[in-house]
Each structure stands twice: as C-alpha cells, then as structure tokens.
Amino acid sequence: MAKDKQSGAATLTRTEPVTATQSTTPTPTATRPVSTRLSSTMESERRSASQAASMPFGRQNYTLMLIGIGVILAGFFIMSLDKEEFGFGFLGLTLGPIVVMVGFVLEFFAILARPKAE
Fold this sequence. Notes:
about 120 residues, mainly alpha, 3 helices
C-alpha cells in the first residue's frame, strides 16, 4: 500500500456548530389588495401562450408531414415496380430515388415551416 494513502474508511466531520438562522425583521405587507382575477386580455395572452407551448406544429405542418410520408412510400413502391434484374432499370435507379428524395425534402419543410397564428 502506498504511504500517501490513508487506510480505513473516510469519514466526513463537521467542525462548526449548527446555528439556526431566523429572520427577526418583519416582512413588509402590501399596501393595496392584490386582485386574484386577471383581466380578459391577460387571460387570453396566457391561454394563447400555453397553446403555443403545447402545440409545436400546426395543422399545415402535420398535413405536409403526411404528404411527405406518402411520397416516400410511393417512391419505394416505384422502385419495386422495376422489371430489370436487381432493379437496375430506369424505375429502380432514377425515378424511384428522385421521388423518395422529394418526399424527404417535403418532410424537411414540414418540420421547419412555422405554424400560422390562429
């Protein structure tokens, strides 16, 4: 065993005494009553802010996402229609991959498009 290491379990000790900290100064009170009811504009702002936080995508975003998924699936279906050996024809090597890439571009725009304020 190395000489610089202590043998046995390490224990943590506290050297200073525990003191209770309580504030003896009174807290200031409000001079006017606080209204618990928010004004109608504040309520509508809070409601719209909570809706914006709860729904990151709008209807347009979800529609574009579904269309993009459909285009991607159509591209794979087009690739499967190729009658050449191992799919080395026009449908399997050119048209199908282009359609799949268009579908992924649609998905990219569906994610990045800002939802319209309603």
